[in-house]
């Protein structure tokens, strides 16, 4: 730009001197200056317009970026609200499922509780709940969720309790078919069978896997209340003694995802006393 101004200035000076020495009246200084200056003014106007448009574009880009940032912030806030809403919906559905479980067992008093800790990472074979003696929870109380029997309270504090799941090794439950036709034993075998399968034993030879698959807690159990769903018999075979059958049980409860449970505050001995009085 500076070089252009120098060249134009030199041309103007040259034109003035040329006019002075030649004294040609046919070409005036004004005409010469007009020829030289007007293109310069037009160029300057173009440069100014270009700079103005560039400044406007920069302003528009700045505004656009600010708007994008604002929209991204609003989008993040909406996502957080949506996530909170989804969590609330899932929690409400979980508690509705627990309520349905309560209604299926009208003869038992129950206390809702949340899982607050677990000994396992991917399997709730022993876990802690947020209810204790202050809430009336005692050892040997049965624990269920919306799907079936979870386990039994094995230790308790003022505001917490530890639940041992039925899938834990050496845990055994006296079971019977849903309609009370046959008794059997269902045992935890976490080290071999995993968190979804238990062992079935002592079923009579007449046990029919197709007809008698659903197993519930037996009336003869010393700790477990009767009628709580344990799971479904599978792979049942006749033992060499030809008198009993063995197999596996697919648990009704998914022990990889337990969040809310029901502690049945009705104790087995209390139930037996009530039945004896009747």
Descriptive key words:
single chain, alpha+beta, Thrombin, subunit H, 6-stranded antiparallel barrel
Write a brief caption for the model.
Helix content is 40%, strand content 27%. By secondary structure, it is an alpha+beta fold.
CATH superfamily of the largest domain: Rod shape-determining protein MreC, domain 1
User: In percent, how helical is the residue content?
Assistant: 25-40%
Radius of gyration: 43 Å
Number of strand segments: 12
- CATH fold group of the largest domain: Thrombin, subunit H
Low-confidence stretches: none
Q: What overall geometry do the principal axes of the alpha carbons give?
A: elongated
Strand order of the largest sheet: 1-2-5-4-3-12
Number of helices: 4
- How does CATH name the architecture of the largest domain? Beta Barrel
Give the overall pLDDT as a whole number: 78
Q: Which CATH class of the largest domain applies here?
A: Mainly Beta
- Structural class per helix/strand content? alpha+beta
Main beta sheet, described? 6 strands, antiparallel, barrel
Strand content: 25-35%
């Amino acid at each position: 730009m500076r070089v252009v101004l120098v060249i134009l200035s030199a041309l103007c000076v040259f034109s003035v001197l040329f006019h002075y020495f030649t004294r040609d009246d046919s070409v005036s200084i004004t005409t010469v200056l007009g020829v030289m200056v007007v293109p310069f003014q037009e160029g300057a106007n173009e440069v100014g317009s270009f700079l103005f448009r560039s400044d406007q574009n920069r302003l528009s880009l700045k505004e656009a970026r600010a708007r994008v940032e604002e929209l991204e912030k609003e989008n993040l806030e909406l996502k957080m609200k949506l996530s909170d809403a989804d969590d609330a919906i899932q929690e409400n559905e979980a508690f509705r499922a627990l309520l349905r479980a309560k209604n299926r067992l009208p003869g038992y008093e129950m206390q809702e509780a949340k899982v607050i800790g677990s000994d396992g990472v991917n399997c709730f074979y022993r876990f802690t709940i947020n209810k204790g003696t202050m809430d009336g929870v005692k050892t040997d109380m049965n624990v269920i969720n919306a799907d079936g029997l979870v386990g039994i309270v094995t230790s308790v504090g003022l505001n917490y309790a530890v639940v041992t799941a039925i899938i834990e090794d050496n845990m055994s439950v006296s079971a019977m078919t849903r309609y009370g036709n046959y008794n059997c034993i269902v045992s935890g075998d976490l080290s071999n069978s995993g968190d979804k399968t238990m062992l079935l034993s002592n079923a009579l030879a007449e046990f029919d896997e197709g007809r008698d698959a659903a197993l519930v807690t037996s009336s003869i159990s010393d700790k477990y209340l009767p009628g709580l769903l344990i799971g479904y018999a599978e792979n049942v075979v006749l033992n060499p003694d030809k008198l009993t059958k063995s197999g596996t049980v697919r648990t009704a409860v998914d022990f990889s995802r337990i969040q809310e449970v029901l502690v049945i505050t009705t104790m087995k001995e209390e139930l037996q006393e009530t039945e004896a009085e009747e």
